Amino acid sequence: VPGVAPAKVAILGGSVSGVNAAQMAVGMRADVTIYDISNDRLAELDMFFSSQIKTAYASKAAIASAVKNAHLVIGATGAIGSAFLAHLQADPRCALAVGLGRHTQPAVDLDDEATIAAAAPQLKAQGPWHCIIHAAGLLHGPHGMPEKRLGQLNYAQMEATFRTNTFGPALVLAHFAPLLPKQGRGLLAVLSAKVGSIGDNRLGGWYSYRASKAALNMLVKTASIEVARTHPQAVLVALHPGTVNSVLSAPFNGAEIGRPAADAAGDMLRVLDGLPAEQTGSFHAYSGEPLPW
């Protein structure tokens, strides 16, 4: 179906019935993997199907990873976070979808480092978590609107912006990246913003917000290098959601020019579906377009 990601089909055993099931799934353009305990049989299947399917040895870890697809959304009470969670809960490929925020159990409060450190161990037993999305962010608040001029810079606003947009996500990376599968594909995405691109900055202004997102992008890139050493198929990525109709964009005509949060979340999930491990540590728009750092 155009616009819908292919279903992921795991077939346990490369016997005649397994081959028949795979042929049917391939005919429906599914993403098919056959698991078997015989390397010789896997080689035969590779030759028979060519590049139409993937094969994998049927270890306990590989099978566990295939049959359970757990997703986690941090910042699930915001417009985009709640839209992510709704999409995932409606996706038949997703066996478990959990949303976290200040008032969930466990709680994740970006202003309280201890909650981030405590939440990850509590969720470990339900994992591995195949997709972790950090969707919280701050553009304006009690400390004011985004600064347009150097003369408007002040510690209080810069600290608040960096705490939510940079420091909090950094600790999420530190504590939650180890929950990704060590074998098999895993995704950890954070919401960044195109205005955090240094190479794309043509207008200036919005000092704290731009700088906090640029710093977040560097954290994602740096973490991706480290995580790849222990989780070779993990993809860590920064995503630009575009202008979305939300509280964050409301003072900037978001209701008039922004897209529905459900559309933005769906677009970004399709981008995540298509990212290979080779693109870990990258920065993409909701359209899939790679963005300059």
Summarize the SSE layout with pairings.
Blueprint: E1 8-12, H1 16-27, E2 31-36, H2 39-49, E3 54-57, H3 60-67, E4 70-74, H4 79-90, E5 96-100, H5 113-123, E6 129-134, H6 155-176, E7 186-191, H7 207-230, E8 234-240, H8 254-257, H9 261-273, E9 282-285
Parallel strand pairs: 1-2, 2-3, 4-5, 4-6, 6-7, 7-8, 8-9
Largest sheet: 6 strands, parallel
**Widest sheet, order of strands:** 5-4-6-7-8-9
Individual helix count: 9
Alpha-beta classification: alpha/beta
**Whole-number average pLDDT?**
89
Shape: elongated
Are there runs of 5+ residues with pLDDT below 50, and where?
none
Could you describe the 3D structure shown?
The protein has 293 residues and is an alpha/beta fold. Helices cover 40% and strands 16% of the residues. The protein has nine helices and nine strands. The protein has helices at 16-27, 39-49, 60-67, 79-90, 113-123, 155-176, 207-230, 254-257, 261-273; strands at residues 8-12, 31-36, 54-57, 70-74, 96-100, 129-134, 186-191, 234-240, 282-285. The strands form two sheets. It has a six-stranded parallel sheet with strand order 5-4-6-7-8-9, with helices on both faces. A three-stranded parallel sheet has the order 1-2-3, sandwiched between helices. Strand 7 (186-191), helix 7 (207-230) and strand 8 (234-240) form a beta-alpha-beta unit. Helix 4 crosses helix 9 (261-273), helix 5 packs parallel to helix 6 and helix 6 (155-176) packs parallel to helix 7.
Q: Care to give the gist of this entry?
A:
With 293 residues, this protein is an alpha/beta fold.
